[in-house]
Amino acid sequence: MIKKKSRSNKAQAKKEIKKGPNIKIYCDISKCLACRSCELACATEHSVNKDLIKAIYEQPLSKKRLKISAVNNKAVSIHCQHCQDAPCVLACMSGALAKDKISGATLHNKDKCVGCWMCVMACPFGAIVRDIEQHIAVKCDLCPDRKDFACVAACPAEALFAGTKEEFEKRLKDKKDKK
Amino acid sequence: MNYVIIGGSAAGVSAAEVLRKGDKKANITLVSDEQEAVYSRCLLTYLIAGSIDQSKLNFKDKSFYKDNNIKAYLGERAVAIDVKKKKLSLDSAAGISYDKLLLATGASAKVIDIPGIKKKGVFTVRKIDDARSILAMLASVKDVAVLGGGLIGLRDAYALRQRGKQVTVLVKSPQILSQMVDVEAAAMIATVLKKNGIKIENGVAAKEILGKKSVEAILLDNGEKLDCQMVIIGKGVKANTELASCGLKVKDGIVVDKYLRTDDKNIFAAGDCAQAYDVARDELRVNALWPCAVEQGQIAALNMLGKHTAYQGSLSMNSVDFFGLGCISLGITKPKPEQDYEVLAKTKAGTYKKFVLKQNRIVGLVLVGDINAAGIVGPLIRNKVDISSIKHLLLEDSFNYAKVLPLVARFQECFKQAEYQDTIITY
Question: Which tens digits make up the pLDDT trace of A115-133?
Fold first, then answer.
């Protein structure tokens, strides 16, 4: 039942979600099943081939940019919050991290990154990952190569949501009202 | 309005950016004694190592000053401030009037006074010209001696080792990185450095630099001689406070209040030259660090704009990565035994974690190997959050932001930023 419903939602989401100002990924902690589908989808989306099976054979292995973690018998996705006054941007001494002037997303330019880990030191959410092989930082880039978001599209529990805060809160409220 | 900034590095440039954002019409002038605009000083050792080229040295677009309509005097030195006339004089004689002035004069490499220190082949690494000079003579150098086992000395040593040089680091104290980490972490880092061919000599110092015009060897204080063709002085930095002689209070740096204002209400100071409040130590301290400089530059600029903004305070923080071994330290890493600190530490398979607590508040952190949790701890230190309920989780491998969520939900006054609140909407 749940599976079917989420698929139809997924198809809808693909059409509806547009990337724009103040959009980021939200996690509904009450819904996350800790299945880690998002982690897999994220790593796949950021692989060279963008295909799970092919990605497994890539060297170096593609890195996921979010992590599912337990908190008091619940699970939550830890990922970049695209902070307005981003501490990682403040700490970045190479100019690799910057705020996108239009969307407000916190973006990382891997060509400028030297792997000093100042951003790892600064991120209050621990959402920046080290790619040890390439010696660069890796973080959520809001999936620039696709119209939707790989983690959200992969979430069978509808825990992950992409949009503005208002949209996320509205969704929570709508769900509550339905109940 | 005339805003004038002295210094064109992290603090100066960040301030200029905020000033322009907050006041589109004001005259903004920036004076820097370096010709090169907006390059990142911290990247110089990467340039020496050969891991980046000069095109990647900038942390802002090269056209930053033009794009932001900032009048930049590059390669010019500010020599004096007349606080009564509110006028800055440059060595080129042109005077600049200011309404609000920011001192972002940075710091200089400390130099030691031993015979032979002026010989060709002796360097400090602070400015782009230093790096260029080192690179220019690199081909003729086989052995390098680095004086000082602090962060700067070791970064230089690491860079030159990557160029294939025989590098010896002379450290007077028994451990390396004594300002940054404790003995345990230092030993782990030293092991990796040594394994990768960097020699570390503890307990010795250079007595004299030998050679005709150029460096040929170093005479050590134990009587031994060390052959080398290049000497790098890595003895730390000292704040550039000369301009504060116009009557501003100076201790280790130019003393500022919580609005980053000096004694003169029209003059502010930020970055490596400023001595501001340190949150972990609860005292005034110069934390000559990139992130502190950027933040202070921004906050000083807001206050110059009249947007009364208090600076929460700086936190000493360092990140190093040598041969793939990462280490991050925050706040107090070597607590004095008499001041009832609590220390939680754990060594496991090439990793080391240490939390320094005081009354159930984290005041310091050292992570070696597994450094991913460092960023989460910073705000816990800054906001003096009572961590008693998650204390047993701190040293766990699984410690991450999820474990902090209950605290975010409970102490909302400590986690005001919207981004924190976003994470607990459904918690």
Answer: 999 999 999 999 999 999 9
